[in-house]
Design brief:
alpha+beta; EC 2.6.1.42 (chains A, B); Branched-chain-amino-acid aminotransferase (chains A, B); 7 helices; homodimer; nine-stranded mixed sheet; aminotransferase (chains A, B); binds pyridoxal-5'-phosphate; branched-chain-amino-acid transaminase activity (chains A, B); 356 residues; D-amino Acid Aminotransferase, Chain A, domain 1; 19 strands; globular; D-amino Acid Aminotransferase, Chain A, domain 2
Chain lengths: 356, 356
């Protein structure tokens, strides 16, 4: 057993009354988890405390040099009241690979899982019961040493926040409109695109803001070298159904290895479908569109699970995919994945982890 | 006049007794400056307060998505007790261009300069008098909205910290050893390399740590597309003296437009020297080395002013430059720039700003 001290709140907050108005990432539960790191001492003092502001030295390195990483996952409430996590071991493995790239000392993945279960169990009353709602889980690490020289920090803080969140698409699985980004680049091989670190998201804000102004929900990133190969979208990996082949960009160092992506690949293969992880250029997609072979396109990620793309714009070419409606592969994946996540179906892959 | 409230500390700290042991960026003065931003209200509540920790919501966006920028400059104490800043307007212009790229609302550059002068004057007793020592100034902005969705924040905090710092090279202008980085990439055109945002520095930590392990002080970054054109070094821009031409990489969107770089170009030209801002490949530098045309190489930046490169390693080729000693151009620039900064010489370019 790991030693995680628990200090319960003496002033529980009012839980949201109307679960249909939860939104995403603005409401936090009663408790949070903290583990500290100091050079020479290692990770220490795991504890659950009441949610609240932390005192931070304004010279803390995370505020200046962005040495910070995060994860994102969910806890799901089943119909019988059970609480499930979805492949949390994968998130903690990815957290450690983010640590490695960003020069942050790695953590004990069992401690991470055990302490997360304790926190989720303690605040399980906050997990919404409404359909497609869940408890969003945000583990993160920040560099806390107060020093202005650029170097790896000597102290860190790991935290987990919990946020009850509504369905990503309140009115059902709505296909999104995205366009191919032609000015900005999110990441390049040799950089940090394959890990979850703050700078990747900060770099992407400008393109995202410009997309919103034009009524697009996201941009589709191209590679930073040749500016022609498809990378990913906002917080999602991309899949294309081309004829009877499902294609997703290979993990070549500049995109995030999504856990939903991995699960989708495994699931499609278990259904006997052909899935290729390879380079795919925007020209190949446009060509397939013109030939009638672009059947579906969809993004995958923890937040939306499956997000069908109804319109993909590339310069002057506007590709309307599957008539702007969700396609059969996207729908089947969404149904199968969410059924496993919410405990409504068998779990043939062993992806679910029961909290209580 | 701008309205900047001042709350003086009631418990002034002990100033460092031994100015020769200041180091860099670990000691902070008695006060700090804060200005807040809220959507709908703009920047407001400029105030100088005692230095100390700030209360931060753990969901503050800067801790997750790296929406943060900073600047770096210095205050210098002249022999007659005068206090000078060096081209601070350039720093605030660059701060605003960082804001623009990172989707942070821009600030009034006059307010920035006036409030900085007030802070420096208040804490001017902290400016070291020892030779080559100065007061390092760190303005920065962080996104403070507590929300886990990826978007531009609706609230921000601007702060300025002051840190007395010793000479960059305690034993005099020591040429450094650097090597050409071949695995990692710092930035790519379309990304954020031309602004001062945390993520750029976080991305560079790993290469820097590996360089230190091999006893090199820094890496020389190559461009992320062709991996052959020289970019910059750590927190410095690069210059090469090739025959009688001084060459520095052009500002093509992936390197920081350094203020020392700009000053060096202007100064060299005022001396009648030929300076080219253009693309320069590592092969061209190696070729010049073999032909005996690589006379000097040096970095430029606020911290070290001029940092001569004594050894530049590229794969198996070890280039010892000017016999590992500081060259005449580097030395002349260092002497001329520091004489202006510390008020020991005329200021023909109008670069100095007197604080008191
Ligand atoms: C950049 C990026 N790509 C892809 C994903 C999808 O990853 P996952 O399926 O693990 O949520 C995310 C979200 O986590 C992301 O931030
Ligand atoms: C990445 C980078 N390049 C170059 C520089 C040099 O810029 P300046 O001369 O304005 O200090 C710095 C330091 O500010 C820097 O951080």
């Amino acid at each position: 057993m790991y030693d995680v001290k628990v200090e319960r709140t003496s002033a529980p907050k009012q839980k949201p009354l109307d679960e249909s108005k939860l939104g995403f990432g603005t409401i936090f539960t009663d408790h949070m988890l903290m583990i500290e790191y100091d050079k020479g001492q290692g990770w220490h003092d795991a504890r659950i405390v009441p949610y609240g502001p932390i005192a931070m030295d304004p010279a803390a390195m995370c505020l200046h040099y962005g040495q910070e990483i995060f994860e994102g996952m969910k806890a799901y409430r089943g119909d019988d009241g059970s609480v499930y996590l979805f492949r949390p071991q994968e998130n903690f493995k990815r957290l450690n690979s983010s640590c490695e790239r960003m020069c942050i000392p790695q953590m004990d993945e069992e401690l991470l899982l055990e302490s997360l279960k304790m926190l989720v169990e303690l605040d399980s009353g906050w997990i919404p019961a409404a359909k497609d709602s869940s408890l969003y889980i945000r583990p993160f690490i920040i560099a806390t040493e107060p020093k202005l020289g650029v170097k790896s920090s000597d102290s860190y803080l790991y935290m987990v926040l919990l946020s009850p969140s509504g369905p990503y698409y309140p009115s059902g699985l709505d296909p999104v409109k995205i366009y191919v980004e032609q000015s900005y680049v999110r990441s390049v091989r040799g950089g940090t695109g394959m890990v979850k670190t703050g700078g990747n998201y900060a770099a992407a804000l400008k393109a995202q803001d410009e997309a919103h102004e034009q009524d697009y929900s996201q941009v589709l990133w191209l590679d930073g070298v040749e500016r022609k190969y498809i990378e990913e979208v906002g917080a999602m990996n991309m899949f294309f159904v081309l004829g009877d082949e499902v294609v997703t960009p290979a993990l070549l160092g500049s995109i995030l290895p999504g856990i939903t992506r991995k699960s989708v690949i495994e699931m499609l293969r278990s259904w006997g479908m052909k899935v290729s992880e390879r380079r795919i250029s925007i020209d190949e997609v446009a060509e397939a569109y013109k030939n009638g072979q672009l059947k579906e396109a969809f993004g995958t990620g923890t937040a939306a699970v499956i997000s069908p793309v109804g319109e993909l714009k590339h310069g002057d070419l506007v590709m309307t995919i599957n008539g702007g409606k969700i396609g059969p592969v996207s729908q089947r994946l969404y149904d199968a994945l969410t059924a496993i996540q919410w405990g409504r179906a068998e779990d043939p892959f062993g992806w679910r982890v029961k909290v209580k």
